[in-house]
Known about the structure:
It is a single chain. By secondary structure, the protein is α+β, with helices and mostly antiparallel strands. The protein is built from 20 helices and 34 strands. The strands form 9 sheets. It has an 8-stranded mixed β-sheet. A 5-stranded mixed β-sheet has the order 2-1-7-4-5, sandwiched between helices. Strands 31-30-32-33-34 form a 5-stranded mixed β-sheet, sandwiched between helices. The longest helix has 22 residues, at 68-89.
Amino acid sequence: MNETIKLTLPDGSVREVPAGTTGLELAAGIGKGLAKAAVAIKVDGHVRSLQLPIDTDATVEIVTRDTPEGLHVIRHSAAHVLADAVKRLRPHAKLWKGPAIDDPRFGFYYDIDVGDEPLSNEDLPKLEELMRQIVASDVPFVYEERSREDAKRLMAEHGEVYKLATIAKIPDGEVISFYHSGDFVDLCEGPHVPSTGRIGKGIAVLSLAGAHFEGDAGQKMLTRVYGHAFADEKSMAEHRHKLEEAQKRDHRRLGIDLDLFSTMGEFGAGLVLWHPKGGFVRHKMEEFWRQEHLKGGYDIVYTPHVARSDLWRTSGHLDFYADSMFKGMDVDGADYLLKPMNCPFHVQIYKSTRRSYRDLPFRWAELGTVYRYEEAGALHGLMRVRGFTQDDAHLFVRPDQLDAEIDRVLAFILHILRSFGFEQFEMNLSTKPEKSVGDPKDWATAEAALRKALEKSGLPFEIDEGGGAFYGPKIDVKIRDSLGRSWQCSTLQLDFNLPERFDLTFVDHDGERRRPFMLHRALLGSLERFFGILIEHFGGAFPVWLAPVQAVLLSVGERHGAYAEKVAAELRERGFRVDADCGADKIGAKIRHHLWQQKVPMIAVCGDQEVEHGTLAVRDRRDGELGALTPDQLAERLAELERTRA
């Protein structure tokens, strides 16, 4: 008689099945619909391939294609099929790795050495068609384990030198596994869908990029092929539409079209030049930021761009962050480094004098420019740069003030983000990792305070168990833009490390010296990156309060120019950002240029009737024709939109 095992389903029911039953067989036994939708199985919480046997009692859950875990398996399997397609198009290509990824633009990629036959954008449709053929063939994914020597022999036969390097890094005793699909084989731990047909038709090959082997700039540059996969064709079509819209809103293109910014290029990769219009938007961002911080009980501080290496050694940055810091410079025989962060400077302000419990809390905010080394291939417009201004703040609080200050900070974060037009948020609470510093009681207190603040916010949040930094737990806040993409912006981080390293204390009410809690807090993250997000969120069409030009007065003919210039000058004297276009172009061309190409919030046409009656024919970019308004009425509308940040 065959040995049986007990499999406990999510509803608590138990099924007795023969040992060695696969997840696919289990799903089929539950129902045809479930078996058709199934792409993987959770066994005691671990996602596995459906085609693998289950040999012991376990808690199980069928993973369907419309779940996050199911999509991850589909995308991982699609990466495998992409590699197969590349090998068919470039038989001598050598594979490195192809994971599923969490990215708003892409679902997976594969890094490949294509040798002397580089891939181009013209090859992407060919690869996608090959992928569709492989999916349509519906060949099974077959799992295989091999000994280390057999694994090396197999990869050597296929000429997969990068896979051989990967095998060399697999620790002794760990399983070395492969997945076969037809004639294609790949070193992979899975999981994969049962067969290529289960990936479905919602696939696409999207773009090419470069990636160094092992992420090391000294190693060979490989070709990274990006793709995506969804549960169905409709979801893929929606994503393609979003990608097309994202291309229209790409901040790099709009930065040129609207003359907002550029980068230094060959004279300083990853360094940003703010042009006058972009500089004005930044000015309004900073002006609002400072006003709100002063109203919120913060003090503004300023700190240097460099410091002796001793500061970064004491802070621990030279131990944990050196690869992201620029090399030093010799100043009077001492080694100085550009700052990657502002926090050690704020610590020095704290240490500049003796502190009493009566003084705390301190809330110190700074728009501090920092410098971090990024790989050249990772640089991306304003989103990934080497020099940026961080909207930093550090709070030094007594333990009894922690709950109230965290509540204040979280409310402040949401207020600022909402003021810039964001209403959808994702929250994460990252807790104590396996390796950490600080008193366990402090960790418990800090995590409880962060959790309590999130619960008070009324917004849903997820727990990232063990995801905190070694020096303290944190809250991360992601925003969703107008295309539904998530962007990590705000962070609230508790720190037990720097107060210890720099021996920060305050004199308590009983005369004893005690250590303060330190909170790191960023709202926008960096001005450069947040500006890039704003450009794409608004499609370059900034709201009135941020727009570098709020309105343009357009003359119909030469005889109307003096009136347009006069009214524009009067509005400028009242503090509004108004230009006049009295050029020879036809009025239709002027309207298209300013309202739709330059994305000015309002235009006002000046013709015979307007000159005669002292009015303006106003059109709002969002609301359309507003009819005849007096200059005073236009001013009132602009003032109200600016005041409310609508």
